[in-house]
Description:
The structure is a homodimer.
Chain A: E1 4-5, H1 15-24, H2 43-60, E2 66-71, H3 74-86, E3 92-97, H4 100-111, E4 115-121, E5 144-148, E6 150-151, E7 156-157, E8 169-172, E9 189-193, E10 204-209, H5 225-230, H6 240-256, H7 258-279, E11 296-299, H8 304-316, E12 319-320, E13 331-334, H9 341-357
Parallel strand pairs in A: 1-12, 3-4, 3-5, 5-8, 8-9
Antiparallel strand pairs in A: 2-10, 6-7, 9-10, 11-13
Helix pairs in contact in A: 1-6, 2-6, 3-4, 6-7, 7-9
EC number (chains A, B): 2.6.1.52
Subunit structure (chains A, B): Homodimer.
Catalytic activity (chains A, B): O-phospho-L-serine + 2-oxoglutarate = 3-phosphooxypyruvate + L-glutamate; 4-(phosphooxy)-L-threonine + 2-oxoglutarate = (R)-3-hydroxy-2-oxo-4-phosphooxybutanoate + L-glutamate
Amino acid sequence: MPTYNFAAGPAVMPEPVINQIQRELPSLGGSGMSITEISHRSAAFTDIIERAEADLRALMDIPDDYAVLWMQGGGTGQFAAAPLNLATTHQRIALLDSGHWAVRAGDEATSLGFKVDVVGSTKADHYHTLPELAHPLTAGTYDYLHITTNNTIEGTAFHQLPATNGTTLVGDMSSNILAERYNVRDFGLIFAGAQKNLGPAGVTIVIVRRDLVHQVSHLPSMLNYQLFMDKHSLYNTPPVFAIYACGLVLQWLREQGGVDEMERRNREKSGRLYDFLDESKLFYNPVTSNARSLTNVPFMTGDADLDAQVIAACQAAGLMNLKGHRSVGGLRASLYNALPLAAVDALIDCLYHFEKDHA
Amino acid sequence: MPTYNFAAGPAVMPEPVINQIQRELPSLGGSGMSITEISHRSAAFTDIIERAEADLRALMDIPDDYAVLWMQGGGTGQFAAAPLNLATTHQRIALLDSGHWAVRAGDEATSLGFKVDVVGSTKADHYHTLPELAHPLTAGTYDYLHITTNNTIEGTAFHQLPATNGTTLVGDMSSNILAERYNVRDFGLIFAGAQKNLGPAGVTIVIVRRDLVHQVSHLPSMLNYQLFMDKHSLYNTPPVFAIYACGLVLQWLREQGGVDEMERRNREKSGRLYDFLDESKLFYNPVTSNARSLTNVPFMTGDADLDAQVIAACQAAGLMNLKGHRSVGGLRASLYNALPLAAVDALIDCLYHFEKDHA
């Protein structure tokens, strides 16, 4: 019986990538040294990080006037880095409150002394749909508008971006980077912790328009975009293994057909699950249909005890990590790029039989 | 022919650890999931991080009134975190300038707005010996005194600590943590990037006396000791793989006999190499004998072309990454815990024959 990992992050990685890491772990490229032992200044690692960047640029069609940075600290690190680096004119940012991680981003900016204006929120709707701008943004007011392109916990995603009226758009893309097509040019800054859709925890991808980056005083080096841009992410020792593993995932993505093919597969995977849930008499997904995420699908019966039984039945069938986030309850299936369609079919099959047995 | 990795960091890890990582990479504990895929909230990872902390506490004899934090960002991250968290009374720190990394620590604190007083320096001696305090520290002047316990580039180590006269001591122990015995009680804060003597790059160990930790406003979460202490290093997703790998190294260290046994081996390894260098007519180590590092041994012929030939001859013999740091030149052998005595013997043998052939 295969095991399928539906975790929200850290999450499933492509099986061929895991196999390759295992195969070459003791001796990278016949060097006699492990990827965990090689210098970040070595020719071997230079090749790795340069190829990873080139593959990411090809996959996302990143223009040359955007820098790619490999940082540490995850989305939480960027909740600080984004305002510290970019909110230097107005010290004021706009935020679309679409759920937990948007709130966390706002809280971090506030705690660092920035003014954060919530310019739209669906909190009152339990985040079952996406916020719109209550009013058009006034030009020259905000350093940027922050959105969470995919809300891992609530199961929503911006498939269309808000009209920013010239204000720079910052996207926390942690849980749907490379899962669906976005136009990088629509953003001034995109960031993503790797551990959801890209690789192991421990590295954070930052894509930033170069003209937004400038020297900022009193800024810790590890959060300094200018420094990371100038030093090509090698000011100090980067997380070598995590970058290597992301690089292998990026190669795998290109071999599989890139972002458009991933989006097609993710629409297929999530579509099958949403269709099942919408037809089910027992399970439901609470999200407005046009706001539904391709990567994170929360669902429930409405009865917490019954949900727990479903989770146990799934686990017995090798369908792992389906417990929903505590703030939402129920179940959550994360359908990242590396999760095969067969996993979704197995899940639907398990849910179908559970429902039949409990009718 | 075995390959020996003398790199200064990222650096050699114990072979049994590399083998174990490889063996269990596709399925941690029979879970069907890789360590790169499991949640940081899972029972499996909870066991890993708790055992790693317990092993570190046992190895270093860390008292209960010290917290152990697993952070990101390496020594450079801590060059910011240390003053931001601890230098809140006087906004002023004292620094013993023992070389490159001490200077970098001082520069980071200065750039963040702290006053940094260099209270001793051996810069004029090319850092060939360790600085002493020019004057006793005046009580109530500094939030702490920063030292680099082992200077990776210059090849010196504080085997005896400076008398701080009651001032809190902060030790950057990145390149000799667990390589020789220090008394944790002598420090208010110890930090170390893992990638020299502990594991793969991507995780930073912080050992801090709990009473020094307090709420600080306007502090990025990823640098916030109070938050990491309160959340047991799990405020956000930690670098799961790097912590796991460090945990395996810590287990290996305990099996090998702990820090005292490591210090004995490192004295043996470095002693053999220093003895050879001191007797050599071709090679020399420039460091004052009582300041010599157990883990990093720079040496040279005094002729850069000849040094390059030595490096090539070593590489041909499977002795890798012996090029010295550009600021010092020559060669550097890093003899971390995971490097076996046989590697040092092979190096001495290679150097001996090179010298004989060039006599």
